[in-house]
Backbone:
């Protein structure tokens, strides 16, 4: 068994954990909306067609914001198609996912779903692929102006007398990607963002706007793209987005378990771009990061293959419906640790996606919705850390040779002083071979009396999954190895190989 130790320093605060870090992406894609959130024919649906079993799990998951309607879908979307009487809404081709969009779920449906799911905040994505400034202004007028204009009065006529008061907007999606409908190079996009953002702020100067950063860390234009965006639009935007997906290659779980190292480097490098631009422009404005797409996604797998053919445009096909393993959940837990460790600059984030489509929740057509393995680390982290303070750790961790990322720490961990005055510690053991005895020196200035929780996500079968037939195969289990020394203010716990652990003490 390996030995590791750390000391939590409560005198050095990394930053506050913004609730927006626990957002999600819901895209009009596959069964993410139709069959996921919304299914009027389902036995689990309420009077508005929303699946109540999904809503209950969303509340348990702890989601705060919803980025919608995309994703790649948004670059061809006309928001006007999704408002007004449902029997008059047009069916459209969705070129992003080679499907048919019925538009039976639009802005009003999303707003009502957000209320039912816990008064969640909408992060509205705007079409910067085939549309631009006028569409953005029309959307803003329709959604946020109380009354007295043609579009505001149309919203009222359509059943929403009060404005939606949307504050947070994404200016497009992955516009650096050649797969994106209306793809732009960095100068074209940066200039477009500057124009659209300035126009939107003429209507409402207090909006919060997100400019598209690179679609992933490995893009050929990474860095150059961010620099150009910030050169033209630094003072007009509040966030730069980051997107990242990871997966395990066959026979390379050990490499996969180091994926959060890449996410960490990605964040550091984008922060450097932002700070360099701020200094160069001598701006007093602060731009932060919205990591508004992140997850494990097996992009080359069968579930991710989109339909083909001129006469084949299905409605809500089964797409991107990965069934996650215990190892996938450990990596997702590590991503959450990474986001928390950057609480000073990552002020919003969205796990992509929520239901059915690479989501922590699965909603079978004729069975109750259930928790995927990835549900557990997200729900626990969200429950404990919102509005908490991330603390600095001084650690002595063994190193592990990773084929892709070099020498990395075998443990990743983060400590948070929670809003309820308890202490939460999240830990990943990245080794596929070794258990670890982990000793933690607690902050000296706080009095702790008991262990509220010590649970570990682990299975000896690294490929164990939850399914509709066995939806509790992988769950959190109590870690009975934990020892709390109140006199010495020390914790000791054994961490199984390939595991994610949560500790909460008060």
Residues:
């Amino acid at each position: 068994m390996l030995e590791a130790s750390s000391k939590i320093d409560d005198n050095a605060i990394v930053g506050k954990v913004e609730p927006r870090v626990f957002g999600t992406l819901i895209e009009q894609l596959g069964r993410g909306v139709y069959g996921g959130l919304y299914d009027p024919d389902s036995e689990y649906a309420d009077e508005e067609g929303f699946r109540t079993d999904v809503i209950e799990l969303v509340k348990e998951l702890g989601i705060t914001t919803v980025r919608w309607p995309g994703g790649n879908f948004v670059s061809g979307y006309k928001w006007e198609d999704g408002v007004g009487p449902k029997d008059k809404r047009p069916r459209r081709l969705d070129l992003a996912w080679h499907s048919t969009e019925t538009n039976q779920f639009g802005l009003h449906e999303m707003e009502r779903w957000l209320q039912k799911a816990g008064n969640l905040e909408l992060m509205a994505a705007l079409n910067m692929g085939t549309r631009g400034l006028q569409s953005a202004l029309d959307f803003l007028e329709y959604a946020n102006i109380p009354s007295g204009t043609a579009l505001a009065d149309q919203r009222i006529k359509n059943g929403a007398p009060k404005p939606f008061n949307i504050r947070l907007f994404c200016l497009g999606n992955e516009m650096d990607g050649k797969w994106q409908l209306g793809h732009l190079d960095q100068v074209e996009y940066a200039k477009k963002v500057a124009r659209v953002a300035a126009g939107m702020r003429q209507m409402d100067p207090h909006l919060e706007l997100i400019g598209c950063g690179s679609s992933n860390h490995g893009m050929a234009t990474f860095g150059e793209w961010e620099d150009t965006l910030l050169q033209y639009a630094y003072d007009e935007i509040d966030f730069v987005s980051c997107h990242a997906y990871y997966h395990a290659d066959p026979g390379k779980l050990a490499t996969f378990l180091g994926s959060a190292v890449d996410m960490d480097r990605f964040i550091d490098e984008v922060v450097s771009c932002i700070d360099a631009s701020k200094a160069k422009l001598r701006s007093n404005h602060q731009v932060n990061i919205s990591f508004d797409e992140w997850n494990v996604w097996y992009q080359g797998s069968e579930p991710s293959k989109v339909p083909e053919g001129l006469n084949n445009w299905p409605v809500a096909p089964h797409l991107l419906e990965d069934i996650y393993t215990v190892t996938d959940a450990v990596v997702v837990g590590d991503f959450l640790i990474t986001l928390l460790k950057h609480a000073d600059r990552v002020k919003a984030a969205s796990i992509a996606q929520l239901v059915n489509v690479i989501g922590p929740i699965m909603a079978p057509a004729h069975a109750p919705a259930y928790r995927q393995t990835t549900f557990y680390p997200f729900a626990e982290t969200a429950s404990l850390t919102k509005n908490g303070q991330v603390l600095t750790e001084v650690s002595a961790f063994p190193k592990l040779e990773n084929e892709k990322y070099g020498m990395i720490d075998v443990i990743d961990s983060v400590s948070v002083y929670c809003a309820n005055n308890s202490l939460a510690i999240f830990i990943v053991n990245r080794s596929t071979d070794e258990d670890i005895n982990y000793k933690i020196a607690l902050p000296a200035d706080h009095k702790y009396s008991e262990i509220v929780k010590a649970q570990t996500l682990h299975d000896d079968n690294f490929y164990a999954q939850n399914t509709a037939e066995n939806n509790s195969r992988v769950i959190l289990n109590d870690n009975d190895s934990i020892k709390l020394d109140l006199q010495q203010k020390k914790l000791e716990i054994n961490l199984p190989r390939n595991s994610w652990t949560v500790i909460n003490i008060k």
Summary: The longest helix spans residues 259-281. Residues 3 and 437 are 5 Å apart (CA to CA). The mean pLDDT is 97. The radius of gyration is 23 Å.
